[in-house]
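tl;dr need the bound structure. longer version: we got a ligand (magnesium ion) that a collaborator sent over and nobodys looked at where it sits. i said id run it. heres the input, straight from their email, havent touched it
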Amino acid sequence: SVREAGGDSILSLSKSSHAALNRKSIVEKRLLQALDQKNLHVLYQPQVDVKSGKIIAVEALVRWDDEEIGVVSPDELIPIAEETGLINNIGSLMLERACEQAVAWKNAGHELKVSINSSVREFRDKNMAKSILETLERTGCPANLLQIEITEKFALEAEAEKGIIKQMRTLENEGIVFALDDFGTGYGSFRYMQLLPISIVKIDQTFTRALKSEKTQQLVNGMVQLGKSMNLTVVAEGVETEDQQQLLTNFGCDIVQGYYISKPVKSSEVSDLI
Ligand code: C2E
Ligand code: MG
Ligand code: MG
Ligand code: MG
Protein backbone atom coordinates (compact mmCIF):
# COMPACT_ATOMS: atom_id res chain seq x y z
CA SER A 1 0.00 0.00 0.00
CA VAL A 2 0.91 3.66 -0.28
CA ARG A 3 1.28 3.85 3.43
CA GLU A 4 3.70 0.97 3.59
CA ALA A 5 5.72 2.41 0.71
CA GLY A 6 5.91 5.75 2.51
CA GLY A 7 6.96 4.07 5.69
CA ASP A 8 9.62 2.14 3.83
CA SER A 9 11.15 5.17 2.25
CA ILE A 10 11.36 6.98 5.56
CA LEU A 11 12.96 3.92 7.07
CA SER A 12 15.48 3.56 4.25
CA LEU A 13 16.31 7.27 4.34
CA SER A 14 17.23 7.06 7.98
CA LYS A 15 19.12 3.85 7.31
CA SER A 16 21.19 5.47 4.58
CA SER A 17 21.96 8.60 6.58
CA HIS A 18 22.94 6.33 9.43
CA ALA A 19 25.26 4.46 7.10
CA ALA A 20 26.78 7.75 5.89
CA LEU A 21 27.46 8.86 9.46
CA ASN A 22 28.96 5.52 10.21
CA ARG A 23 31.21 5.67 7.15
CA LYS A 24 32.28 9.18 8.10
CA SER A 25 33.30 8.14 11.59
CA ILE A 26 35.21 5.13 10.24
CA VAL A 27 37.05 7.32 7.71
CA GLU A 28 37.82 9.85 10.43
CA LYS A 29 39.20 7.19 12.77
CA ARG A 30 41.38 5.62 10.05
CA LEU A 31 42.52 9.06 8.89
CA LEU A 32 43.76 9.93 12.37
CA GLN A 33 45.91 6.83 12.30
CA ALA A 34 47.06 7.39 8.71
CA LEU A 35 48.18 10.92 9.61
CA ASP A 36 49.91 9.64 12.70
CA GLN A 37 51.86 7.09 10.66
CA LYS A 38 52.24 9.42 7.68
CA ASN A 39 50.50 6.87 5.48
CA LEU A 40 49.13 9.43 3.06
CA HIS A 41 51.12 9.94 -0.08
CA VAL A 42 51.43 12.39 -2.91
CA LEU A 43 51.15 12.08 -6.67
CA TYR A 44 52.28 14.87 -8.96
CA GLN A 45 50.52 15.88 -12.17
CA PRO A 46 52.68 17.74 -14.69
CA GLN A 47 51.69 21.12 -16.10
CA VAL A 48 53.18 21.88 -19.49
CA ASP A 49 54.06 25.30 -20.85
CA VAL A 50 52.54 25.30 -24.34
CA LYS A 51 55.20 27.60 -25.82
CA SER A 52 58.24 25.54 -24.80
CA GLY A 53 56.51 22.18 -24.46
CA LYS A 54 58.30 21.75 -21.15
CA ILE A 55 56.99 20.68 -17.76
CA ILE A 56 57.24 23.81 -15.66
CA ALA A 57 55.10 22.88 -12.70
CA VAL A 58 53.37 19.97 -11.02
CA GLU A 59 50.21 19.79 -8.94
CA ALA A 60 50.52 17.77 -5.72
CA LEU A 61 47.46 15.58 -5.15
CA VAL A 62 46.81 13.55 -2.01
CA ARG A 63 46.43 9.77 -2.23
CA TRP A 64 45.33 7.38 0.48
CA ASP A 65 45.11 3.60 0.32
CA ASP A 66 44.18 2.45 3.80
CA GLU A 67 44.97 -1.10 4.87
CA GLU A 68 41.50 -1.55 6.39
CA ILE A 69 39.12 0.53 4.30
CA GLY A 70 41.03 0.61 1.01
CA VAL A 71 41.40 3.56 -1.34
CA VAL A 72 39.62 6.71 -0.21
CA SER A 73 39.38 9.23 -3.06
CA PRO A 74 40.13 12.93 -2.49
CA ASP A 75 36.50 13.69 -3.34
CA GLU A 76 35.43 11.69 -0.28
CA LEU A 77 38.45 12.40 1.90
CA ILE A 78 38.70 16.19 1.61
CA PRO A 79 35.11 17.06 2.68
CA ILE A 80 35.38 14.75 5.70
CA ALA A 81 38.78 16.20 6.58
CA GLU A 82 37.37 19.72 6.24
CA GLU A 83 34.48 18.91 8.53
CA THR A 84 36.62 17.29 11.21
CA GLY A 85 39.48 19.78 11.09
CA LEU A 86 41.94 17.09 9.98
CA ILE A 87 42.40 19.06 6.75
CA ASN A 88 44.96 21.16 8.62
CA ASN A 89 47.03 18.03 9.26
CA ILE A 90 46.68 16.89 5.65
CA GLY A 91 47.64 20.37 4.48
CA SER A 92 50.82 20.47 6.58
CA LEU A 93 51.81 17.01 5.43
CA MET A 94 51.26 17.88 1.76
CA LEU A 95 53.12 21.17 2.13
CA GLU A 96 56.09 19.48 3.77
CA ARG A 97 56.28 16.78 1.07
CA ALA A 98 55.82 19.31 -1.75
CA CYS A 99 58.62 21.52 -0.44
CA GLU A 100 61.00 18.59 0.07
CA GLN A 101 60.23 17.37 -3.44
CA ALA A 102 60.71 20.80 -5.02
CA VAL A 103 64.13 20.98 -3.34
CA ALA A 104 65.04 17.46 -4.54
CA TRP A 105 64.16 18.37 -8.14
CA LYS A 106 66.01 21.65 -7.83
CA ASN A 107 69.13 19.85 -6.62
CA ALA A 108 68.80 17.54 -9.61
CA GLY A 109 68.81 20.59 -11.88
CA HIS A 110 65.05 20.96 -12.48
CA GLU A 111 63.35 24.14 -11.32
CA LEU A 112 59.79 22.89 -11.07
CA LYS A 113 57.07 24.80 -9.28
CA VAL A 114 54.97 22.66 -6.99
CA SER A 115 51.33 23.53 -6.55
CA ILE A 116 49.37 22.43 -3.48
CA ASN A 117 45.63 22.63 -2.85
CA SER A 118 44.48 24.53 0.22
CA SER A 119 41.18 24.62 2.03
CA VAL A 120 39.85 27.78 3.61
CA ARG A 121 39.83 26.13 7.02
CA GLU A 122 43.64 25.97 6.94
CA PHE A 123 43.79 29.75 6.45
CA ARG A 124 41.49 30.34 9.43
CA ASP A 125 44.50 29.40 11.52
CA LYS A 126 46.04 32.77 12.30
CA ASN A 127 49.49 31.19 12.04
CA MET A 128 48.99 29.69 8.58
CA ALA A 129 51.23 32.15 6.70
CA LYS A 130 53.87 31.93 9.39
CA SER A 131 53.91 28.15 9.40
CA ILE A 132 54.13 27.99 5.58
CA LEU A 133 57.12 30.33 5.68
CA GLU A 134 58.70 28.22 8.42
CA THR A 135 58.26 25.08 6.31
CA LEU A 136 59.93 26.78 3.34
CA GLU A 137 62.79 27.78 5.59
CA ARG A 138 63.16 24.36 7.20
CA THR A 139 63.11 22.48 3.90
CA GLY A 140 65.22 25.03 2.06
CA CYS A 141 62.51 25.51 -0.58
CA PRO A 142 62.59 28.88 -2.37
CA ALA A 143 59.23 30.67 -2.02
CA ASN A 144 58.91 31.12 -5.78
CA LEU A 145 58.72 27.34 -6.25
CA LEU A 146 55.54 27.09 -4.20
CA GLN A 147 52.07 27.71 -5.60
CA ILE A 148 48.84 27.48 -3.65
CA GLU A 149 45.55 26.57 -5.34
CA ILE A 150 42.37 27.85 -3.80
CA THR A 151 38.83 27.13 -4.93
CA GLU A 152 35.96 29.52 -5.42
CA LYS A 153 34.45 28.17 -2.21
CA PHE A 154 37.64 29.29 -0.47
CA ALA A 155 37.37 32.68 -2.17
CA LEU A 156 33.74 33.12 -1.12
CA GLU A 157 34.61 32.64 2.54
CA ALA A 158 37.86 34.59 2.34
CA GLU A 159 35.91 37.62 1.16
CA ALA A 160 34.06 37.77 4.47
CA GLU A 161 37.12 37.15 6.63
CA LYS A 162 39.75 39.80 6.14
CA GLY A 163 42.34 37.86 8.15
CA ILE A 164 42.48 35.27 5.37
CA ILE A 165 43.24 37.80 2.63
CA LYS A 166 45.84 39.39 4.87
CA GLN A 167 47.64 36.06 5.21
CA MET A 168 47.46 35.55 1.45
CA ARG A 169 49.06 38.96 0.91
CA THR A 170 51.83 38.16 3.39
CA LEU A 171 52.65 35.01 1.42
CA GLU A 172 52.34 36.81 -1.92
CA ASN A 173 54.85 39.41 -0.74
CA GLU A 174 57.27 36.57 -0.01
CA GLY A 175 56.95 35.33 -3.60
CA ILE A 176 54.38 32.55 -3.23
CA VAL A 177 51.87 32.47 -6.06
CA PHE A 178 48.13 31.80 -5.73
CA ALA A 179 45.99 30.09 -8.35
CA LEU A 180 42.19 30.19 -8.57
CA ASP A 181 41.21 26.55 -9.15
CA ASP A 182 38.07 25.27 -10.90
CA PHE A 183 37.71 28.72 -12.46
CA GLY A 184 34.30 29.49 -13.91
CA THR A 185 32.30 27.01 -11.87
CA GLY A 186 31.47 29.20 -8.88
CA TYR A 187 29.30 32.25 -8.40
CA GLY A 188 31.75 35.07 -8.04
CA SER A 189 34.69 34.32 -10.31
CA PHE A 190 35.03 37.89 -11.56
CA ARG A 191 34.79 39.47 -8.14
CA TYR A 192 37.45 37.15 -6.74
CA MET A 193 39.80 37.94 -9.61
CA GLN A 194 39.58 41.54 -8.47
CA LEU A 195 39.66 40.96 -4.74
CA LEU A 196 42.25 38.26 -4.13
CA PRO A 197 45.99 38.24 -4.80
CA ILE A 198 45.87 35.56 -7.50
CA SER A 199 48.31 35.25 -10.41
CA ILE A 200 46.92 32.14 -12.09
CA VAL A 201 43.45 30.98 -13.15
CA LYS A 202 42.81 27.32 -13.80
CA ILE A 203 39.94 26.87 -16.21
CA ASP A 204 37.83 24.02 -14.84
CA GLN A 205 37.85 20.68 -16.59
CA THR A 206 34.11 20.78 -17.26
CA PHE A 207 34.84 23.50 -19.85
CA THR A 208 37.70 21.55 -21.40
CA ARG A 209 35.49 18.47 -21.63
CA ALA A 210 32.78 20.40 -23.50
CA LEU A 211 35.09 21.96 -26.11
CA LYS A 212 33.38 20.08 -28.95
CA SER A 213 30.57 22.61 -28.67
CA GLU A 214 31.16 25.83 -30.54
CA LYS A 215 29.48 27.81 -27.79
CA THR A 216 31.90 26.38 -25.25
CA GLN A 217 34.81 27.23 -27.54
CA GLN A 218 33.68 30.86 -27.63
CA LEU A 219 33.20 30.88 -23.87
CA VAL A 220 36.61 29.37 -23.14
CA ASN A 221 38.27 31.71 -25.61
CA GLY A 222 36.66 34.60 -23.72
CA MET A 223 37.81 33.20 -20.38
CA VAL A 224 41.39 32.99 -21.66
CA GLN A 225 41.28 36.57 -23.01
CA LEU A 226 39.85 37.80 -19.72
CA GLY A 227 42.65 36.15 -17.77
CA LYS A 228 45.30 37.53 -20.10
CA SER A 229 43.86 41.04 -19.98
CA MET A 230 44.34 40.91 -16.22
CA ASN A 231 47.94 39.70 -16.66
CA LEU A 232 47.12 36.32 -15.19
CA THR A 233 48.65 33.03 -16.25
CA VAL A 234 45.92 30.84 -17.73
CA VAL A 235 46.01 27.10 -17.10
CA ALA A 236 43.54 24.64 -18.64
CA GLU A 237 42.68 21.57 -16.60
CA GLY A 238 41.43 18.18 -17.71
CA VAL A 239 43.04 18.16 -21.16
CA GLU A 240 42.46 14.64 -22.47
CA THR A 241 42.84 14.95 -26.25
CA GLU A 242 45.12 16.48 -28.84
CA ASP A 243 42.16 18.44 -30.26
CA GLN A 244 41.49 20.04 -26.88
CA GLN A 245 45.13 20.95 -26.44
CA GLN A 246 45.22 22.46 -29.95
CA LEU A 247 42.12 24.59 -29.37
CA LEU A 248 43.37 25.80 -25.99
CA THR A 249 46.73 26.67 -27.52
CA ASN A 250 45.01 28.62 -30.30
CA PHE A 251 43.03 30.56 -27.70
CA GLY A 252 46.32 31.59 -26.07
CA CYS A 253 46.18 29.41 -23.00
CA ASP A 254 49.62 29.40 -21.30
CA ILE A 255 49.70 26.03 -19.57
CA VAL A 256 47.90 22.72 -20.01
CA GLN A 257 47.31 19.93 -17.50
CA GLY A 258 45.47 16.66 -18.00
CA TYR A 259 45.58 12.99 -18.91
CA TYR A 260 46.65 13.82 -22.48
CA ILE A 261 49.95 15.06 -21.04
CA SER A 262 50.13 12.77 -18.02
CA LYS A 263 48.05 11.37 -15.19
CA PRO A 264 49.19 12.21 -11.66
CA VAL A 265 52.36 10.13 -11.11
CA LYS A 266 55.03 9.41 -8.52
CA SER A 267 57.85 11.91 -8.14
CA SER A 268 60.34 9.53 -9.78
CA GLU A 269 58.13 9.31 -12.89
CA VAL A 270 58.02 13.10 -13.11
CA SER A 271 61.80 13.06 -13.32
CA ASP A 272 61.53 10.53 -16.18
CA LEU A 273 58.94 12.67 -17.99
CA ILE A 274 61.21 15.71 -17.79
P1 C2E B 1 41.64 19.71 -8.42
O1 C2E B 1 42.55 20.47 -7.55
O2 C2E B 1 40.82 20.46 -9.40
O3 C2E B 1 42.56 18.61 -9.11
C1 C2E B 1 42.32 18.08 -10.40
C2 C2E B 1 41.64 16.74 -10.32
O4 C2E B 1 41.33 16.28 -11.63
C3 C2E B 1 42.49 15.62 -9.71
O5 C2E B 1 41.61 14.69 -9.10
C4 C2E B 1 43.13 14.99 -10.96
O6 C2E B 1 43.56 13.65 -10.75
C5 C2E B 1 41.98 15.06 -11.93
N1 C2E B 1 42.41 15.14 -13.33
C6 C2E B 1 43.54 15.68 -13.83
N2 C2E B 1 43.58 15.61 -15.17
C7 C2E B 1 42.43 15.01 -15.56
C8 C2E B 1 41.88 14.64 -16.85
O7 C2E B 1 42.47 14.86 -17.92
N3 C2E B 1 40.65 14.04 -16.83
C9 C2E B 1 39.99 13.79 -15.68
N4 C2E B 1 38.80 13.20 -15.75
N5 C2E B 1 40.47 14.12 -14.44
C10 C2E B 1 41.68 14.72 -14.40
P2 C2E B 1 41.86 14.13 -7.63
O8 C2E B 1 43.31 13.88 -7.42
O9 C2E B 1 40.90 13.00 -7.42
O10 C2E B 1 41.45 15.34 -6.70
C11 C2E B 1 40.15 15.84 -6.66
C12 C2E B 1 40.07 17.14 -5.91
O11 C2E B 1 40.39 16.92 -4.52
C13 C2E B 1 41.10 18.18 -6.38
O12 C2E B 1 40.60 18.86 -7.51
C14 C2E B 1 41.21 19.06 -5.14
O13 C2E B 1 40.16 19.99 -5.09
C15 C2E B 1 41.03 18.06 -4.02
N6 C2E B 1 42.37 17.69 -3.48
C16 C2E B 1 43.26 16.75 -3.92
N7 C2E B 1 44.36 16.73 -3.13
C17 C2E B 1 44.17 17.68 -2.17
C18 C2E B 1 44.95 18.15 -1.04
O14 C2E B 1 46.07 17.70 -0.75
N8 C2E B 1 44.38 19.15 -0.27
C19 C2E B 1 43.15 19.69 -0.56
N9 C2E B 1 42.68 20.67 0.23
N10 C2E B 1 42.41 19.27 -1.60
C20 C2E B 1 42.91 18.29 -2.40
MG1 MG C 1 43.90 21.92 -7.83
MG1 MG D 1 40.59 21.99 -10.51
MG1 MG E 1 38.23 19.83 -8.81
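gonna send this back to them w/ a short note. The pocket of magnesium ion (ligand 4) is lined by residues 182 (CB under 6 Å).
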